[in-house]
Amino acid sequence: MVYELSQTFHFEAAHTLVREIDAASSKRIHGHTYHAEVTLRGVPDAASGMLMDLGFFRRELAVVQEMLDHHLLDEVAGLTKPTLEGLCAFIAEKLRAPLPLLASVKVWRATGDSCKLIVG
Ligand SMILES: Nc1nc2c(c(=O)[nH]1)N=C([C@H](O)[C@H](O)COP(=O)(O)OP(=O)(O)OP(=O)(O)O)CN2
Ligand SMILES: [Zn+2]
């Protein structure tokens, strides 16, 4: 049987955004609290009964969290655009190698905006 295993983390970050609507306030540096959910999908190992031990899973997420927490997203190397979409892509890219069972990355803000990347 196929299972999905998820972990969440959060980070505080600032950014500016170039957009056509509400352009002036978005262009000023402002901050958000972001939440991210990373999901693995696969068949549990027969010996351990786990897709991956949550301890190892959390350790990998902490590496990415450190790259984003209390950073100005505009300056984060490898983050092409400081949007929810860009954050999903950045997190997936960083986790693709250490988490071979990576299935999706979801990023959201308390205001209800959310974006989910299905890793193909
Ligand atoms: N497709 C996307 N659209 C927008 C994104 C995004 O990541 N992907 N991000 C933003 C902004 O970050 C913006 O700060 C939020 O804009 P908006 O919702 O208009 O602002 P509010 O004042 O309503 O809410 P806050 O979240 O408190 O800023 C815009 N669009
Ligand atoms: Zn913003």
Automatic annotation (TrEMBL):
Organism from which the protein derives: Piscinibacter terrae
Source organism superkingdom: Bacteria
Pathway note: Purine metabolism; 7-cyano-7-deazaguanine biosynthesis
InterPro entries, alphabetized: 6-PTP_synth/QueD, 6-PTP_synth/QueD_sf
Name assigned to this protein: 6-carboxy-5,6,7,8-tetrahydropterin synthase
Cofactors required: Zn(2+)
Catalytic activity: 7,8-dihydroneopterin 3'-triphosphate + H2O = 6-carboxy-5,6,7,8-tetrahydropterin + triphosphate + acetaldehyde + 2 H(+)
Gene3D superfamilies given in the database record: 6-pyruvoyl tetrahydropterin synthase/QueD
Broadest EC class assigned to this enzyme: lyase
